[in-house]
Amino acid sequence: MRRTGCAALFPLLCGIALILSGCTPLPESKAAGPATPHAATTHAPAPSEAARKPASSAAPADVTVAPLPQGIIGTGTLVLSDGEADGTVTFTSEGGWATARLNGFTTVKTGQLDLSLSPYPARVPCDADRYNFVMNPLDAETKTWSLPMMDGTPFGTDPTYIKSVALRADTDAGKPNPAHCVYPVLATATIKWSIVPTRIRFTVADHGPRAGATGVVTVARDAPSTYTVAQGDTVAAIAARLGISAAALYFLNPYAGALDPDQAGAAANLTYGTVLNLALANRGAPPS
């Protein structure tokens, strides 16, 4: 399986490839992603009584995301498949770009190396096959990757939802391996971020369907879990139904640039059927 090159479609974002693949780990490892209980579907016309409140009681919520500082913003120790440590990865922020650099990592692999940024913990089966952003192209001499800090990219807002990285070789795609992964993993690292935490002052609650927000809400552990965009929905109406600001909705779904309230015309890009995350615990991990 190969990614489709983005240079012809999006020259500005040629360094970004969004990978969503269908790797199927062994049954005992199936729940390796964020712990999310099976959600019960609540159809829009009848939200649960526990979550329902009068629409007039929904007060605007807020979220304050601190700008990324210049310099080092995150680090991690690279661990090989045999459990041995082999170098580190360092993330820096400078001039509107986020850069990842490998330090002390050795490999006999040739060709392009890809660094996958994942919202899942490290060392899960087929790390490099799961939902992730891939930073490329690689500077082979210095082993560095860069991404612009743009909306809809991992560094467009608070990047702390990125829990781990996985390093893989492009030439290994599809080769037989014990884990039966599309991309065998060379090394993984858990990222420790050193940035100011986002200030959260909101609680998601379903205040009932309304014009521009007639989609389906699912509930897990007595709290809204996901929202499925319906035809004619708008960002403002969805946020109002949930009792939060548009900024908070975007914070919960940092990979969805169409939700960014500061991006002109973004709301027009809402796609019917898109499933949005509503749980802080699952921030950055696309609902399934």
Mean pLDDT: 75
Helix count, DSSP H or I runs of 4 or more residues: 2
Intertermini distance: 21 Å
**Proper CATH architecture of the largest domain:** Sandwich
**Radius of gyration of CA atoms, rounded to a whole number:** 20 Å
Derived from helix and strand composition plus strand pairing, the structural class reads: mainly beta
Q: Biggest β-sheet, characterized?
A: 10 strands, antiparallel
Low-confidence stretches: 1-61
What is the fold named in CATH at topology level of the largest domain? Immunoglobulin-like
Helix fraction by DSSP (H/I, runs of at least 4): under 10%
Order of helices and strands: EEEEEEEEEEEEEEEHHE
> How many β-strands, per DSSP?
16
Q: For the record, what CATH class of the largest domain applies?
A: Mainly Beta
| Shape type | globular
The tally of structural domains comes to 2
β content, as a range? 25-35%
Structure description:
The chain is mainly beta and 288 residues long. It has two domains: 38-65 and 200-282, no CATH class; 71-193, Immunoglobulin-like (Sandwich). Helices cover 5% and strands 28% of the residues. It has two helices and 16 strands. The chain has helices at residues 235-242, 246-252; strands spanning 16-19, 40-42, 62-64, 71-80, 85-94, 97-103, 113-118, 132-135, 144-148, 164-169, 187-190, 192-193, 199-201, 216-220, 223-228, 275-277.
